[in-house]
Amino acid sequence: LPARSAEEPATSLVRLRARLLPERRYAEPSSAAGVADFAAGTSAVSSDASAMSSERLLVGGETNPGVVATELADRLKQFGSVSVGSMGPNATSRAVKALMIARVYLSETLGSNKELLAIPQVEAFQFQDEERWRMVLDCVIWDDNLTIL
User: Fold this and answer.
1) pLDDT at 99 exceeding the cut of 60
2) Strands 56-59 and 81-86, bridge-based pairing
């Protein structure tokens, strides 16, 4: 879409499809210790595969979406699901961009009968005795029968 003013950049149009899905049946991260923090510009990714499958990727406002997309695609190929967390509009925008880039990276894996789905939710957590909120996108690869792969 064209820019509305000289201060605003041109934007892209994204088409979203919505449908009811069965209840999720995959593991959620159990603690804040299981995160890869891209918000700080570094990744604290564990080399242990079982721990890595339940880690949450955290995206910040200055995060490179391509780096997150690569990690996201790798984890989706390996484990079939991953969670991406973000706080604030810039971070959430970059998380969504990372999903769109990861979809391109996964196009060969997904083929014509699989989809990359992102299930949004808002999560409350405590930080320095203060309640904060973040957006979490639970990402999974589904086939046409709506079963988790």
Assistant:
1) yes
2) parallel
What does the pLDDT average to over 5-34? 58
DSSP one-letter string for 55-91: PEEEE-TT--HHHHHHHHHHHHHHHSEEEEEE-SHHH
Collapsing DSSP to helix, strand or coil, 138 comes out as strand
Q: How far is Cα 122 from Cα 133, in angstroms, rounded to an integer?
A: 7
State pTM to two decimals: 0.67
Greater model confidence, 31 or 41 = 41
Distance in angstroms (rounded) separating the CA atoms of residues 14 and 46: 33
Of the candidates 47, 133, 123, 49, the one whose C-alpha atom is nearest the C-alpha of residue 83 is 123
Using DSSP, how many helices (H) and how many strands (E) does the chain show?
4, 5
